[in-house]
Amino acid sequence: MGDDSEWIKLSIDQKCEHKLWKARVNGYEEALKLFQKIEDEKSPEWSKYLGLIKKFVTDSNAVAQLKGLEAALAYVENAHVAGKTTGEVISGVVNKVFNQPKARAKELGIDICLMYIEIEKGEPVQEELLKGLDNKNPKIIVACIETLRKALSEFGSKIISLKPIIKVLPKLFESREKAVRDEAKLLAVEIYRWIRDALRPPLQNINSVQLKELEEEWVKLPPAAPKQTRFLRSQQELKAKFEQQQAAGGDADGGNLYDGDEVVPQVDAYELLEAVEILSKLPKDFYDKIEAKKWQERKEALEAVEMLVKNPKLEAGDYADMVKVLKKVVGKDTNVMLVALAAKCLAGLATGLRKKFGQYAGQVVPTILEKFKEKKPQVVQALQEAIDAIFLTTTLQNISEDILAVMDNKNPTIKQQTSLFIARSFRHCTPSSLPKSLLKPFCAALLKHINDSAPEVRDAAFEALGTALKVAGEKAVNPFLADVDKLKLDRIKECAEKVELAYGKNTGGAADKKECRPAAGKTPVLSGAAGDKDTKDTSAKSGPLKKTVCLAHDGVNLVVFCLQIEVCEERASAVLPASCIQQLDSGNWKERLACMEEFQKAVELMERSEMPCQALVRMLAKKPGWKETNFQVMQMKLHIVALIAQKGNFSKTSAQIVLDGLVDKIGDVKCGSNAKEAMTAIAEACLLPWTAEQVMSMAFSQKNPKNQSETLNWLSNAIKEFGFSGLNVKAFISNVKTALAATNPAVRTAAITLLGVMYLYVGPPLRMFFEDEKPALLSQIDAEFEKMQGQTAPAPTRGTSRHSGGSGDDGEERDEQEDIGNDVVDLLPRTEISDKITAELVSKIGDKNWKIRKEGLDEVTSIINDAKFIQPNIGELSAALKCRLNDSNKILVQQTLSILQQLAMAMGPNIRQHVKNLGVPIITVLGDSKNNVRAAALATVNAWTEQTGMKEWLEGEDLSEELKKENPFLRQELLGWLADKLPTLRSVPSDLLLCVPHLYSCLEDRNGDVRKKAQDALPFFMMHLGFEKMAKATGKLKVLLDSEEEANFQRSGTGHARKSQSIFQSGRRSSSSQIPDCIR
């Protein structure tokens, strides 16, 4: 009792540290009671025990340790600051608890690990458990595996990272201890529940007996997807939903706990594999053998590569030389067996490198497509596999120029295989990755092929067009099929129905829902007149009808019949007063005026479905028609045309009847405004692009300058009202050039005004088309463009609701507007300069003598200047310029950057296919120590992004790898650039998340400028990635928050209160000086 009296009066925390085990037992018991009583998780009482919890779990006395574990579990469950103890406590559990003989100790240890995961500390827990797998004590290894298995079973694969676990699984199966192997087997079965067949590749090399046993266990698993049963503190809503389902008798319907896209993630087996480095494993004489004259030696070299690229995941590196020699074999080797072997090697490289191979795609795609002239099945199959694998490493946009160039080849086999490749590529696209700007050139090329003399070429083209129709939907594709006859259109639709997309469903379905489809077996008829519903009777009465295929306002190709005058009179007489019909051609202008008044009243009272539009406009065109001499009658006639277009189902057939007369009257002083009103109504009914094309053609086919100038003025105003989307820019530019050459100054002035309006939508590229105009005229154009500087194109006020059904996609419309500038640039004639990039020139650029290198660069500058606009194929120039970016002579580096700026301007949007190969090395130059070099590099990057947009730059790991480099110049320039660019983007690729850990690292950088730039960029990262993703990444930061910082952080904006709390539970943040205001 004397001993007891020494410690019995001590405080709880002192008892817990006492040297007597009985005192510690008593202290742990009292601590447990205390921890269960404290209701406030932020009470300062918790902080007293921060340094003691590790001792709770590592007590050397077995009895005391059990009590300590119980108290530690209560502490972790209830204390707000418990997260700060994660690493040391879990380490103690692994090393001092999992080796204990008592089962209860092990159970409590596992419970503590799971509780830390629940309070958002999954990563450090998993890290310590994985360290425990290297312990020499098999009991510890077994317990760690069991803990990981239970954590995965309860929290699921969204919380528990599987990649590091799968990485060590094969090693566990090799253990000498049966208990370890058995527990590893249970873990493998649990992992398979969550990711299914993605687990097979990483385990393909384990013992065949073990693999067979696993296969047997996997087969027994239920097919239903597993569900999370235990939830993080930040997942309380999910927890409540789960408990409701349980209370209601389970989830019988297999309902999903998550909303929207929050489903158990699909795991890519590739991501679970370890990358293999193969470049150093190439035979030393590989490059000599591949050039050998004996085919056996070349075969030996290729077989060595084939064995290496069979590794499913390859480490990134410089594969340029390897790709170059493989491309040469595919393109020029006369031995077809070696061609097939080289194609297999390319396929293996593309499969193993994935997106990292994308920078080489543009080099090899043309060669493979042209090699399809070989007809041997084994060669064709190998080439197909190669080009399909390469396509998955890049985008269709990046290789579109190469594909379209081959489409004009005269060899039918090449045309067939190219079309089939396009079809297979389309299957991997979505409506967003297959925009109209990309569909347009592909559809144009494929439409030529459906008329080819070779049946196999036609079949392949039909399949490609059908796939495009399935992916993008009829609304997007039909404008390009307007001139296709019905039989071929049916064939395209038949092919579309058979297509199975890579995503398993018709991604263009949303668009299709908006479209109006005719019933099967019936001829679709545009309801241009009410009498169209009686088509059978009409055809019987009037004999053969003139049939015209028209594109209706809803995007569907409909058949429209031009009715004979007798039929029109019959239909008009059914809805108009008899006196009105009789007085239409009266010789007395007053009677004609009275007739028009009755006509107008009748039209105003008609319902849309009852109005025979074509019949009515035919009556208006009846003699004297548009030659009416009385201006009052003509004004009313033009007003009636506008009414019919506004109130009825007005077709293009009806429009063609009246447009010529409207254009003839648009320059009339008294009737011009009525003519413009009618043309605007027709544009709203039949879409502005079609109406504008018809009106411009009619205006410039006559010699009346007044009509021409007023037509141009009407069009300028119409573009502002309807927007620029869908307009035929090429035809417009041709007509504007004709107008600029007119002798009448009013026509020239109207043309310049129209150019100013077009400039609002197209931008600076528009000027390129008029650089050959006379200096005086060009200065007027420049002055008009100058007026438009800083102005934004007005939002369309017409032509939206009628054609979109009130559910138009604003985002899609904005995307179309953004594509206009690129479409204009695509019209420019471009020069092929690849033949001028000779081996001698490339050798000069790479010479040891800097003067000769400069000569080579000067020649390149001269070639680009002479060509002005160039095609994207620049041969070996890309690799040569890339080497010069690392030149020891900084003057040559700057000259290279200047050339790259020239390339961007000369190549236009097609420069995007060189972003990975040339663009990323430019970013590396931002790390140069010289200010002028960095400034030149930044100007070059900006010149490229003006042409390419930001998407290609943000995709992949390249940007994060650059930011990872601990170069203060590179970091501050790159972060400053991102801070400028990110606010201007509506969306970013998910790969931007890879930059976040390095962004946080920059917040702690020793260089003040780097820290400043990181703070500037941080809000814009959060703007795109969201608070949760950014907050989750803070768990990897090094410096702990003190209690005052936590309090400040918790007082942050109400909108992020709950999310902020999850960050504090993670317990790690940068120092208070680095906490940006956007998070505070």
From TrEMBL:
<dbReference type="GO" id="GO:0007051">
    <property type="term" value="P:spindle organization"/>
</dbReference>
<dbReference type="InterPro" id="IPR045110">
    <property type="entry name" value="XMAP215"/>
</dbReference>
<dbReference type="InterPro" id="IPR011989">
    <property type="entry name" value="ARM-like"/>
</dbReference>
<feature type="domain" description="TOG">
    <location>
        <begin position="271"/>
        <end position="508"/>
    </location>
</feature>
<dbReference type="GO" id="GO:0046785">
    <property type="term" value="P:microtubule polymerization"/>
</dbReference>
<dbReference type="GO" id="GO:0051010">
    <property type="term" value="F:microtubule plus-end binding"/>
</dbReference>
<feature type="domain" description="TOG">
    <location>
        <begin position="1"/>
        <end position="227"/>
    </location>
</feature>
<feature type="region of interest" description="Disordered">
    <location>
        <begin position="1050"/>
        <end position="1080"/>
    </location>
</feature>
<feature type="domain" description="TOG">
    <location>
        <begin position="826"/>
        <end position="1062"/>
    </location>
</feature>
<dbReference type="GO" id="GO:0030951">
    <property type="term" value="P:establishment or maintenance of microtubule cytoskeleton polarity"/>
</dbReference>
<dbReference type="InterPro" id="IPR048491">
    <property type="entry name" value="XMAP215_CLASP_TOG"/>
</dbReference>
<dbReference type="Pfam" id="PF21041">
    <property type="entry name" value="XMAP215_CLASP_TOG"/>
</dbReference>
<keyword id="KW-0963">Cytoplasm</keyword>
<dbReference type="Pfam" id="PF12348">
    <property type="entry name" value="CLASP_N"/>
</dbReference>
<feature type="compositionally biased region" description="Acidic residues">
    <location>
        <begin position="809"/>
        <end position="821"/>
    </location>
</feature>
<dbReference type="GO" id="GO:0061863">
    <property type="term" value="F:microtubule plus end polymerase"/>
</dbReference>
<keyword id="KW-0206">Cytoskeleton</keyword>
<protein>
    <submittedName>
        <fullName>Cytoskeleton associated protein 5</fullName>
    </submittedName>
</protein>
<dbReference type="InterPro" id="IPR024395">
    <property type="entry name" value="CLASP_N_dom"/>
</dbReference>
<feature type="domain" description="TOG">
    <location>
        <begin position="562"/>
        <end position="794"/>
    </location>
</feature>
<feature type="compositionally biased region" description="Low complexity">
    <location>
        <begin position="1060"/>
        <end position="1080"/>
    </location>
</feature>
<feature type="region of interest" description="Disordered">
    <location>
        <begin position="508"/>
        <end position="542"/>
    </location>
</feature>
<dbReference type="InterPro" id="IPR034085">
    <property type="entry name" value="TOG"/>
</dbReference>
<feature type="region of interest" description="Disordered">
    <location>
        <begin position="788"/>
        <end position="823"/>
    </location>
</feature>
<dbReference type="InterPro" id="IPR016024">
    <property type="entry name" value="ARM-type_fold"/>
</dbReference>
<dbReference type="GO" id="GO:0005856">
    <property type="term" value="C:cytoskeleton"/>
</dbReference>
